Amino acid sequence: MIHATTVLGIIHNGEVALGADGQATMGDTVVKGNVKKVRKLADGKIMTGFAGSTSDAFTLLERFEEKLNMHRNNLRRAAIELAKDWRTDRYLRRLEAMLIVMDKDDGLIVSGTGDVLAPEDQILSIGSGSNYAKAAAVALKKHAPHLSAKEMVKEALTVAADICIYTNHNFEILDLGE
């Protein structure tokens, strides 16, 4: 199974950014260094990132996009409906991935256990290096509030890549510009 990554989203001073590294591993071997783990949906109004098995994540991204279409791009409603399906559908229940979904107002972590979480600090992280990235992001928000959300994501991912063997320095960072 191909897995391991770091995905980080930050909402800060009205700005929204989401980034990920590009590493995919199989066991203890790096098999690819430039995987695209973040993307924009809904005509660029919603961003999503995934961690976990790549094929499982793409299945979930497709389902999430279907839910967005069904619920007129209502992020929360689409995430909750995806989590319900994920938890109760026999096929989906076996998928091993997590998602971060964000729009200009909200950021959510969606898991296969039916969780839809909105962190109070507006820092969202998933994947093997997520705790390193989250810790760095918390410090940046507190001690470097002058940085943009995108700059914070880049710096926090850099810290994670310096520490986590499953995270590389090949970042892709998206933002929701005005």
Can you walk through the features of this model?
- The chain is built from 4 helices and 12 strands, in the order βββββββααββββααβ.
- It is 34% helix and 30% strand.
- The N and C termini lie far apart (39 Å).
- It has one domain: Aminohydrolase, N-terminal nucleophile (Ntn) domain (Glutamine Phosphoribosylpyrophosphate, subunit 1, domain 1, 4-Layer Sandwich).
- Strands 6-7-8-9-10 form a 5-stranded antiparallel sheet. Strands 11-2-3-12 form a 4-stranded antiparallel sheet, covered by helices on one side.
- The mean pLDDT is 91.
- The radius of gyration is 15 Å and the shape is globular.
- With 178 residues, it is of the alpha+beta class.
Order of helices and strands: EEEEEEEHHEEEEHHE
Structural class comes to alpha+beta
How many distinct helices? 4
- The CATH architecture classification is 4-Layer Sandwich
User: Can you list the strand order of the major beta sheet?
Assistant: 6-7-8-9-10
CATH class: Alpha Beta
User: What kind of sheet is the major sheet?
Assistant: 5 strands, antiparallel
Helical content class: 25-40%
Shape: globular
Number of E strands? 12
Radius of gyration: 15 Å
In short:
The chain has four helices and twelve strands; from the N terminus they run βββββββααββββααβ. It has helices at residues 54-70, 75-88, 130-143, 149-163; strands spanning 2-3, 6-12, 15-20, 24-26, 29-32, 38-41, 46-52, 97-102, 107-110, 116-117, 123-127, 172-175. α3 packs across α4.
